[in-house]
From TrEMBL:
Signal peptide: none annotated. Pfam families: PPTA. This is Uncharacterized protein. InterPro entries: Prenyl_trans_a.
Amino acid sequence: MTSPVDAFEQLVDLFDHRGDQVLEIEIIPPSLGSSFLKDGCAMGISKKALIQAYMVARRVFFETCTSMSSNELVADLLREQSSSVANKEKFVTEIMLLFDCEHLTAANWRKCRILAALAQHEGPSNQTSQQTRMLKTELTLLQSYQCSPLPRHTKSPTLWSHRLWTLEHLINLVELSVDTLLDLQRHELEVVLRAAELHPRNYYAFTYARHLRSLLVRTAATITTESISCWELRLAKALLSPVLDWCLAHPRDISGWSFGLHVLGHCEDRQSHEEAVKRVLQFALDVGWEGESLWTFVDQAVRRFDLEDTVVNECLPLPRTLERPGAVAEDQTAQASWRAWLSRAQANWAACKADRS
């Protein structure tokens, strides 16, 4: 039987050897007969062992970490840099956040530790690479939480807020090019979409994506001569296709469609609006999709970007066999607008079926 100290030591050893790797962490059932399982970057831990490790980590944290001043944090960082053996205190908050992703005190202590490292050598110096590495390691730790099949971590507002804070400090620390910004946006979108896949209707993940896009737009405008509006359009267009791909693969997810509409709103040209709505409609018509989330996106996009003529004339014309189609559509729109578009699609499906028979 694993003791609390043994469970704590095993998790410390795991995080100590993680480096910058992204782990996939999962809670395993006790029926497997082991408290810990590890295969490459995949790791399993029983709920009992995690609770035991957390109790030890929490005790160590409140006995040693919470009382550390800024100078003590700096001294601890210097000892860590000069020694090949990491202090166990470094991993205490990692274990605490693995158990309780909303432990605000643990998350804030990690912020204080990062700020102490950033203040250690302000301005250009040979320490910048160490500070950059520390921030990147923090991001991969958060990705290990947010992209693992854990019950709450994928939708944790504390973790997503901490990720945005960390990324903002990383952007301020390093020199970025246009290509680097686009790569960063692409990578962060992958993290968001993976978290949204693990936890459907992940409002917090997509809220992070909104804030991140705004941060990258402001950053891009400071490193180039292009205006903010130009970067709004450029970054939104880079997001649009992968976001729509994900939404069509998860058509029930209203949070994904809401973010897709947000991105589409920053693509100011009408061609992008029309192509996106046509693509969604073509998918719905091809597979016979009747879910509310997709048709709500269609309705809101049509209203927001004034695409009714495009949708009615090209994608969803009412069959000629229906009497007074305009009156039917108006009546349905008055009741529930998204249902009006669905009714048009159903009428088309019925007409196609009648033609085939």
